[in-house]
Design a protein that fits this description.
550 residues, eight-stranded parallel β-sheet, 21 helices, 31% helix, hydrolase activity, YtcJ-like, Amidohydrolase, Metal-dep_hydrolase_composite, Amidohydro_3
Length: 550
Amino acid sequence: MTSDLLLRGGLVRTFDTELGNATAVLVSGGRVVAVGDDDTVSAAAAPGTPSIDLRGQTVLPGINDAHLHLAWYALSGPEFCVNLTAAADLAEVRRALDAAPPGEWIVGRGWRETTIAEFADGSAAPSRAWLDEVTGARPTVLHHASSHSIWVNSAALERAGITARTPDPTAGEILRDAAGEPTGILVESAQELVAALVPQPSRDERLDATARTMARLNRLGVTSVTDPIVPPGLWQDYRDLHAAGRLTTRVTALLHWNWPSPTTSAADLARALDSTDLGAGDDLLRIGGIKLFADGVPTHCTAWMHRPYPGGGHGSLVTAGSGDPEQVRELHELIAVAQRRRVRVQVHVTGDRAADAVVDAIEAAAAADPWPDARHVLIHGTFLSPEVHERLARTGTGVITSSLMRTFSGPSMVRIVGEDRWSEAFPARTLLDHGVVVADSSDAPVTEPDWRRGVATFTGEPGPNPFSLLSPEKRLDREEALRLWTTGPAWLEHAESRKGTLAPGRLADLAVFDRDPVTASGRDLLEARSVLTVLGGHVVSEVDADQAFT
């Protein structure tokens, strides 16, 4: 470990518009102190500074995942959870559940209707009856890949006291069969009825899992993440990791007090904000604002859309209130509450009608109480009305896209919204052309946090299904896509003067890759490895044994 380091003899892509590319970079005291050619930068190094010959390899600013549920992703590992992402049919689901880790409950994650053959062809549907045959009396909760519904067995329903007479909670639904009995699928806030009962790992297990997960991210060249749902207990976990010197990525936390319910009342939000030290933290761990929810997700027909779904309905907002007008007023008040307290808001929004409502609320809050450069954010922005792009640019509202959802969610989305509407999802090209600041993200554990696949998707490389491919006019060039994982997230964090580029004075967060991600072919890009990842001048991942200091 060192905080002084000279890297020379490579290609340094600074992503700084004035500096351009270089061949060497010098870091000291946790910051970049010099960038340029080998001779000039080497001359600036103090005697005895550890030096690495890059051997032509490429240096990029550290990768920043703008929307990654770090702790959730850590607890989705095999020691805690059954991974159902690759289950191609119910037989594979059964085998995975038969091998579940020991414990009172079975917890699983990652199933989709379109990847399990019997669900995709309509010959079966997720039901508690099938799950009962496999899991018996052991309560079981299986999280959908989207994290917006769960599939549970009868034992779990019994533990939660859910019967045919149980009313649907606000902003949630207990799916029922023709006789009115629960099917075992709980949507949106209804998840909380069961999820709140599942025993949680111990503090040490949580912290150890999070530390291991940060190490995995470091190996991908990741040095920063934004965790978008951080309740008070998780904030304390992060503080404990920081105090113990175990944070190997920078964490920006978005506070949220109600999950798995997406609904937060304006009154409750005001009380929570007034009782929280929002200025806590430093460059390694800080509060970046709050997370709110406007609507659900298209795959569950809970995104609020202008056009109806094929099966009917438009979805709805998930804010408190009875009916659209009340819910819209509550959305406006939620954003106004934060605006008045100068708290940045990132809003989960996937439907175009919901996005219009959120931008209306941001504009109203700014008109009532101007806050220049607030940098509120739409998370996902899956479907956006054409008129909203210019409004986003005018209000300085950013968008966090989800290229990896585009990569893997195509079949599920097309099944619900059709190919034409899906082709318009996550319009990064249009947003950038309108001057909107965009960052990209994995939303792990909804997907795996592989930024390389995200970059490949937005630049037009073929993906795992035909619905992931962008038409030529919607593609980004390679550097534009990489900026969505570096400079874009830094701007949304109000941290562009500290990270996102490799310029003197910036934090010394960087990754050395065995090939140039800007020019590598699609296949080579997906195989690019970070051979060295540096956080604040300290080496946090070093892959090659022969990549030694010289």
